[in-house]
Design goal:
The protein has helices at residues 10-19, 35-38, 53-63, 73-78, 80-84, 96-103, 105-115, 128-138, 161-173, 236-256, 290-297, 302-310, 350-355, 389-400, 416-419; strands spanning 2-7, 27-32, 43-45, 67-70, 90-92, 122-125, 142-146, 155-158, 179-183, 188-196, 201-203, 208-209, 212-214, 218-221, 226-229, 263-271, 277-283, 326-334, 359-362, 365-368, 371-374, 378-386, 408-409. The chain is of the alpha+beta class. α1 links the parallel β1 and β2 (27-32).
């Protein structure tokens, strides 16, 4: 069968790569794709924007594509599934009424409160003055969140009251209609990517992401500088609690709102020092770079799982199978990211890195006259597997060492929480 992957990042390269490991997948198209999908065997990039639904539908009909897998949150929140499904197209990804779980932090908070789902105490504001009064009353540290899509960067963890007050001004100046102010939680963050057909929900293995730009988890938040899976922080008991206390009640709340949610329900959790899981946020799509690590561990054909979700038969599938050991993804970024950075630098060494046994997923790249060039802030996601975390980390960094582009930057401590 033919599959379309919508998007152009590292997550989409990983999805295309994993789908093509199945004999039943004849070809994958990517709209618009990147330099990695451009050179992936049996994969073809088509220069269509992720929100150009009419052109995407034309491509699906013209090429006989049987499944559309949506990577980023933007087209989901704009209703790509609503647009395609009336034409008989199978779409893996929620419709607009479900994608609001990521598009509106306040909507998601209301859903969690209604379902008794553990989360941080919060309040929502439509103007700056009452938000600032609340911050002064609660004190710092405190968390300020944009109530809307912000490409993974709309969260300010304010360690001082002044930082929090400045964050309020900054987000309202960016024309966000609402801002959520939330209790600061301590602990470790964990990502759970669960797949659902609207009736059944099943988690993939857990992952941990390194959001901050600097080593030791310092500096500005980014889209993610690296990830590893599975996290040893979750034992079987805690994993089962998350399914029973977070995932299943969330699906129940969606059902009670008559939302037929098909796709990924991504739960960003804080595991408190007492071992309690609390939801920081929900996303409506695969995480990036967690997907690169998680899919590297998956043995069950991805196409089988995604089709089962779109055909409402996830409950019929046997348990997902996984490789032994661990996977680690290290993001190589353009110097200056997440602020201003340069594009168009030549990337060398990718084939040599892959000879080391890693997979190099492209995020911000493009193919130009046979050369791979930088074309974004997060450029590559070098991903390796190993028999344990130490082995996976060593393997991944051996691959990283083979790659070069001018002014490149990467964290040298991905996995430090478990490797120390």
């Amino acid at each position: 069968m033919k599959v379309l992957v919508v998007g152009n990042g590292g997550r989409e390269h990983a999805l295309a790569w994993k789908l093509l490991q199945s004999d039943s997948v004849e070809k994958v198209f990517c709209t618009p794709g990147n330099g990695g999908t451009a050179v992936l065997e049996k994969c073809e990039n088509v220069a269509i924007a992720v929100d150009d639904f009419a052109s995407i539908l034309n491509l699906v009909q013209e090429k006989g594509i049987e499944l559309v897998v949506v990577g980023p949150e933007l087209p989901l929140s704009l209703g790509i599934a609503d647009y395609l499904q009336p034409h008989g197209v199978k779409v893996f990804g929620p419709k607009q009424d479900g994608a609001i779980i990521e598009a509106s932090k306040s909507w998601a908070k209301d859903l969690m409160v209604a379902g008794g789902i553990p989360t941080a105490k919060s309040a929502t504001f439509t103007s700056a003055s009452p938000a600032k009064e609340y911050i002064k009353k609660e004190g710092a540290p405190i968390v300020v969140k944009a109530d809307g899509l912000a490409a993974g960067k709309g969260v300010i963890v304010a360690m001082t009251e002044k930082e929090a007050l400045d964050a309020i001004d900054e987000l309202f100046a960016q024309d966000f209609a609402k801002v959520v102010v939330e209790e600061f939680l301590t602990g470790q963050e964990v990502s759970i990517l669960a797949l659902t057909d609207g009736n059944t929900i099943r988690p993939l293995i857990s992952a941990q992401d390194h959001k901050q730009i600097g080593e030791g988890d310092t500096g500005a938040n980014t889209g993610g500088m690296g990830a590893y899976a599975p996290t040893p922080l979750l034992d079987d008991n805690l994993s089962q609690r998350i399914t029973k206390e977070v995932l299943e009640p969330t699906l129940k709340q969606l059902q009670e709102k008559n939302i037929d949610y098909v796709g990924v329900l991504y739960a960003g959790l804080m595991i408190t020092p007492e071992g309690e899981p609390k939801v920081l946020e929900f996303n409506c799509r695969f995480g990036d770079p967690e997907t690169q690590a998680v899919l590297s561990m998956l043995k069950t054909p991805l196409i089988d799982i995604l089709l089962a979700c779109t055909e409402k038969r996830l409950a019929e599938l046997p348990p997902f199978e996984w490789h032994e050991g661990s996977a680690v993804c290290v993001v190589m970024a353009a110097g200056g990211y997440p602020s201003s950075y340069r594009k168009g630098d030549v990337i060398s060494g990718i084939p040599t890195a892959q000879e080391e046994g890693v997979m190099v997923f492209h995020a911000g790249t493009k193919l130009n006259n046979g050369q791979i060039l930088t074309d974004g802030g997060r450029v590559l996601g070098v991903t390796g597997r190993g028999s344990d975390f130490k082995d996976a980390i060593a393997s991944t960094y051996r691959g990283v060492a083979k790659i070069h582009f001018d002014n490149m930057y990467y964290r040298r401590d991905i996995g430090h929480r478990i490797s120390n």
